[in-house]
Amino acid sequence: MVLSYPTLARLYYSTKYIYPEEMIFLKDMKEETSKIDALKKICEEIKALGKITDEHLAALTALFGSRFLRAWKAVKDGMVKKYVFRPSGRVVWIVVGRERDYLVMPEAMFCTCDDFYYHVMGRKAYICYHLIGQKIAEALGQYDEIEETDDIYDFLINEWKEITA
After folding, report:
1. Residue partners of 74: CB distance under 8 A and separation at least 6
2. Cystine design at 43: which of 51, 72, 100, 139 (Cβ 3.0–4.6 Å)?
3. Cα dihedral sign for 131, 83, 101, 114?
4. What is the C-alpha to C-alpha distance for residues 127 and 124, in angstroms, rounded to an integer?
5. C-alpha span between 76 and 143 (Å, rounded)
């Protein structure tokens, strides 16, 4: 059984949460790389299992709080898109946000959203919810894949860049 968004929200705001024994490695995580490494490890587990467990949801909620809750909602609502351009095979990830589409570069851990620019770049946060959502959606295989031709690549990239300018 997978926890619903309201249940996760209650869990996040509850002070009675106890870490599951399997997730003990999360206890000592204090730095950015630790949280990012934990996200990667959890996503590897999700991919291997082919599903997200309640323990994963609880651990991600404990790690990222409301950012994870928003990411999970984006995944559940089908807001993560993978554009594959042919014949080159180039891949572009987009997360549809509240105000616009955000270009996400998972390998570089970069996003074009304002939260990334102001909070992640300003070292007030480690990661934006769009990046968390992309990682989880990819691990679950729960995203829309859109195939386009290479002819339209430059047009779409310029459109996505224009949005952030």
Report:
1. 80, 95, 96, 97, 129, 130, 133, 137
2. 139
3. positive
4. 9
5. 9
Instruction: Give the per-residue pLDDT at 165.
Output: 54
Query: Tens digits of per-residue pLDDT, 31-51?
Result: 556 888 999 999 999 999 999
Average pLDDT score over residue span 137-155:
96
Tokens of 133: 């959502």
Single out the residue of 129, 45, 121, 32 nearest to residue 80, CA to CA: 129
Helix, strand, or coil (residue 111): strand
> DSSP character for 128?
-
Burial class (CB in 10 A: 0-12, 13-18, 19+), 9: middle
Of 88, 89, 74, nearest to 143 by C-alpha is 74
Tokens describing residue 106: 């998972």
> 88: exposed, middle or buried (C-beta count within 10 Å: 0-12, 13-18, 19+)?
exposed
Buried b (16+ CB within 10 A) or exposed e, 13-49: eeeeeeeeeebeebeeeeeeeebbebbeebbebbeee
- Average pLDDT estimate for 112-121: 83
